[in-house]
Amino acid sequence: GGENYEHTIMYPEFAATAREEGFTEIAEVFMSIAVAEKYHEERYLKLLNNIRDKQVFHRKQAATWNCRNCGYQHEGTSAPDLCPACNHAQAHFELTPTNY
Q: Do the beta carbons of residue 90 and residue 80 sit within 8 Å?
């Protein structure tokens, strides 16, 4: 996919060209972007696996699901079909991140 090409070929080649032309700081920027692109690829592959495994709105263990429309939170192995607070469809739910 595109992200793999970007972090394995495209940005390293940009960095090599920049180094050859004497732009070492720009080369480092390109390599830093390659690091970000590697993370993007890993994330997209995990998301793709969730779709393939029908795990976008279902988990094997209970989780907290957050309605992106109203903020209602649901505990369970699946996001509700409809939000009981605002009546929005399951597509409006996401797993509640704990990044604090």
A: yes
Which residues on adjacent β-strands are paired with residue 52?
A: none
At 31-72, the pLDDT tens digits run 999 999 999 999 999 999 999 999 999 999 999 999 999 999
Indicate yes or no: pTM above 0.90: no
Which ranges constitute the DSSP H helices of 1-100? 2-5, 11-20, 24-52
Q: Judge whether 75 and 96 are in contact, CB under 8 Å.
A: no
- Looking at the DSSP bridge assignments, the partners of residue 74 are 65
Q: Which residues contact 62 (CB under 8 A, 6 or more apart)?
A: 75, 76, 77
